[in-house]
Structure formats: C-alpha cells, structure tokens
Amino acid sequence: MTSAVSFQKVSRHFGSVRAVDAVDLDIVPGEFFAMLGPSGSGKTTCLRLIAGFEQPTAGSISIFGERAEGVPPYRRNVNTVFQDYALFPHLNVLDNVAYGLMVKGVGRPERQKAAEEALALVRLPDYGARRPGQLSGGQRQRVALARALVNQPKVLLLDEPLGALDLKLRENMQEELKSLQKALGITFVFVTHDQGEALSMADRVAVFNDGKIMQIGTPEDIYQRPKTRFVADFVGSSNVLPPDFVQRYAGQHRWGSLRPESIRISRANGEGVAARLVSTNYLGATTRLALDAEGLRLHAIVPAGAALPREGEAVVLTFNREHLHLMDELG
Amino acid sequence: MSLDAAMPRATAPAILPGSGGVRGALSDIFWRRPQLLLLLMLLPPVLWLGIVYIGSLVALLLQSFFSIDEFSGLINRQFTLKTYGDLLQAANLDIILRTVTMAALVTLASAVIAFPIAYYAARYARGRWKALFYLGVMLPLWSSYLVKIYAWKLILAKEGILTWLLAKLHLLWLLDAWLSLPIVGGNSLSVSSTGTFIVFVYVWLPFMILPVQAALERVPGNLVEASSDLGASPGQTFRNVLFPLALPGIVAGSIFTFSLTLGDYIIPQIIGTSRLFIGQAVYSQQGTAGNIPLAAAFTVVPIVIMGFYLWGAKRMGAFDAL
What we know:
The structure holds two protein chains of two kinds. Chain A is an alpha+beta fold. In chain A, about 30% of the residues lie in helices and about 35% in strands. Chain A has helices at about 45-50, 95-105, 110-120, 135-150, 165-185, 195-200, 220-225, 230-235, 245-250; strands at about 5-15, 15-25, 30-35, 60-65, 65, 80, 155-160, 185-190, 205-210, 210-215, 240, 255-260, 265, 275-280, 285-295, 295-305, 315-320, 325-330. Chain A is elongated, with a radius of gyration of 24 Å. By secondary structure, chain B is mainly α. The mean pLDDT of chain B is about 90. Chain B has a domain at about 90-315: MetI-like fold (Orthogonal Bundle).
C-alpha cells in the first residue's frame, strides 16, 4: 500500500541551521499521526514541507505516491489548519469556508451549500454571516477546520491547532477531532508540543528533537518503551536512570526509564532503594512526590488519599523489575 | 530584613504626599478630570483648523457666489450664480476635464508602480534594506520641489538624456511616433502632456507607496499561505486576499495623488503644453485677471470632486477592511 506521506532522507536547512535533518517517515493512509517535540525540533518545518510552504534541501517527499518536490501548495490536495487560524478578516465565515471551492471555480450556490454543510459538521451552523472578528477562539478554530475540510483533502495538516484554547475547550476539541477523523477517514497529521495531546489522540506518534525523529510508534510504545533518554524525559516526565543505577537492579549497563506511577513508597525499614522525600505536589486525583535517592532525583506519583511520609523523612522505594525499561543507549 | 532596612514599611504612610507646588496640583487635577487635559490639548489645533483653515475655505466658497463687473473689474458683492455660469463655459470645462483625467491617470499609474515596491518593502525588506527603502522613498521629498521639476525638464528635453538614451538604443522612432500623436504628443517630451504625466507620477509616488506599504504590513503573512494552501494561484491570492486588504491603503494614497494633482499649478506650467490645468486657471484668474469670484469657483471644483470620490470609495467598501 502506498503511504499517505512518505519522506526519504528529507532535510531542510536554513543556512547553517538544520531544521529538518535526514528524516525518514511513512504515514499510513487514514491514520491520525502526531508529530511531537519541543519548539525548534523541526516538527512544524516537516508539516510545512508536506503543505509545500517549504521545499526540501535534500531528499524526496511523496504524497500518495506522487513526488511533491517543486509542487506549489496550491497544487497539492492537502489542507492546513493554521496555528492562529489565518481566517480572512475581510470575508464572512461562509465565504471563508467556501474560499477553496471559489478559487477552484465551483459555482456560488454549490459552494455555499458545501460550506454550510462543513459548518454544520463542526457544529457551527447559522454562523455563516458573521465576520471572523466576531467569533471566540474556539469558534475560529472550528471555522478553520471547516475551511480545510470542505476541500476534502487527501491529508489534513494541523499545526498546534489547540494551543490557543483554554483547557476545557481543548479537551472537548481533542475528542471532537478524534471522532471527526474516524468518521471522515482522512489522514490527519497533527503537530503539537503537548505530549498528553499526542498520546491521547494519535494512532502513531513521532517524537522530534534537533531536526531528527527520535522514535516513531504507538502512544503505548512511546510511553512505555522509550528508546532514548530524550523520549523518556520528554514524553511524560519519566524517571531517567543512569547506567550504574540500572546495573545494580537489572544487571545491564544501560540507560533505563521508570514511570513515576511504577514507584511504590514504604517506611524506611524494608528492602529497596533508600531515599528521602524532598517535596509533595498535590495534583487532585494524584500526588506527585519528589525524592532524593542516593543523589538521584526521582519522581513518584501516588493516588490521592494515600498515607504519605512527611517531607524530609527517609523512605524506601520499591518497583517491579518488569517496569524498569531498558533503553537503547548504552552507558 | 534587608528589605525593611531599605524601606521602613512599618513607618510608611498608606497614602503618599503630593509632590507639592503648582505642578503637583495640576497633575492631580488632570488625573481626576482627563477631559480637561484633552480640551486644553485640542483647543489650539481646533482653533487653528476651525478659524484659519475652515474659515478661509468658507470665505472662499462665499466669494464664488459673488460676481465681477466686466466693465469696471470690481467685485459685485451680491449673491448670484453668474460666476458658476461662467465656470461652465466650454473653455473652462475643458480645463476641468483635462485636470481630472490627468489626476485619474496619475493616480492609476502611481498605484500600479507603488504596489510592487510597497509589497517588497512590507514582505521582504528587513533591517538595512528596509532603511534603504525608506531613504529611497523619502529622499526625493527632502529636496526642493522646483529643483526636481527643472531636473526633469532637462531629462525630458529634446537634447536631454532620455532622447540620447533612446537614440543609442535605436528606439528614437518609438519616441517620435508617440510624440506625433495628438493630445499626448508635442515637440519634445518636456512640452507634452506625457511629460507632465511622468513628472506628476514621479513627484507624488511616495504619497502612494507609504500608505500602501503600511496597509500591506498589517496583512499577516499566513493569510497569503492560507490562500495558497486552499488552492489559490498567486494571481488569485492577489485578487482575493492581498488587494482587498491593501485597498484602504491604496485609497488613502490615491486621495493624496488625486487631490495633489488636481491642485498643482507649477508642474504643468514648467513641463507640458500651454493648455491650462485647474491650478493654473485659479492662479491666473486671481492674479493677472483679478477675477477672484471665478478663481474661487475653480477652487470649489476639486473639493466637490474629492467629496464624490470619497463617497464612491466608501460605497464600494474601500474602508471595510479598516
């Protein structure tokens, strides 16, 4: 089967800056693919390479089997939902949504009907006559989505689309985007720096750092079995354990990772890792503990309501050997 | 503790004393009554504009309703429409038509030339290039208007550099063909309407570039990307996104180029044919002819035209994107 998007050794350099550096990537048709990474890691440049706003310095890009280098954005059947929406301020909502059909020469009645349907799909019917300036952030987000979807793109690109929304709205939109993607069957490529968002929405996640992909896998792969220290650290505050520490408990001289929720805490008289409780952070459903174990800073998460030692008290940490994940990096 | 030593919080009062004196008292009064400050700041310019400027305009308008006694040459201070009747004579209508056509063409050409320059400055020029752009656009405004026009007279003259250049390029036949045309032609560019047009465009171009550049600068770059992403070719993006969003700037610039051309009397006097423009008509009527009422009536024409122009621009939605 041909990939929806395929990168072969794609690089994009800006002068001496390697924004994207020899990236290989295959996105399966119909999947929800997330590009996760800190700012400046090259994930947005990858998205812009797919959209056609950037051209690769080296390597080749194909979209559904067709070579895309040198093809301008307006000839790609790919649409983007921009980070700050980029709605046209001089057009009303309906004309914004119908814009793509208008420039393709679709007649006024047809394109308005399609635009109204797209607005209904994002649950904004009857908003067509308004100007973008009269909408809230969440509504603009939906209009931007409708404006892209009305063109029935082969691939929909989303550039941190939920970044500007408040928490509650963001959670709603995450669910909605996910179900919309399932219903439409369009390939979604989603850029985010929020690991929770990537893990909860995507079928597969690519973790970016310094213009390279560190790991590609299912959210579970990425979360449970990080390959490198960077992935373990960036995806959900895993405890990164140095090789000497891992040697003692798993017998191999490699970097390891241990999820905070895998650590159990008991009074300082059993067998395990001796540690001292530094501070506690109440998070609602759980409590996050900062621990000092032989000079190593570890974090543990325990359910709220559990009996906790006092700050500064000596404790013993235990964990199931299977939960200690060994990474590819040797010491 | 060290903070307490620097600022003895315990002894500090909750309300600080005023700075004292007239200035302190004035500051407090203005803070409590901001309208008073606004009034004081606006009064001088409002008086200036209201009395000196609007007042003299009204006086001028009134003059146009007087008439001149053709035998004695004295002004008859009785309200009459006779002067406007004189204004509508064929010779005067010819002057008005010529001036309005020239102003419209100059405006159109300025807009066409200014847009790419403004677009480059707003989208691409950064740092040193941007400074160079501003310098390039503003520099002509700093030098004397007359020097520039006489310089153009030399450039456009039969012995001038332009004719020389065209001769070197073996394109003199093109210039001769153009100059042999009626209306736009003449003995040389410096005594033709084409010459007047070129110099008008040169002199007023900065007044078009700057507002268009300001308007384009306010258009976020991702709107252009969004348009392209949605399938619009560069031409379609220009028509559907860039042009409508730059239109308020173009209209603002056109107000300058149009009204400045309507009122100018120096350029057509130095460069061009002997046929008059409105500004020259006003100049000769109030000077040598001593016909102040007719000069006033001529002055009313650009005001009325600009009124209609702005009204039309507003009707067409030129200011919607503001």
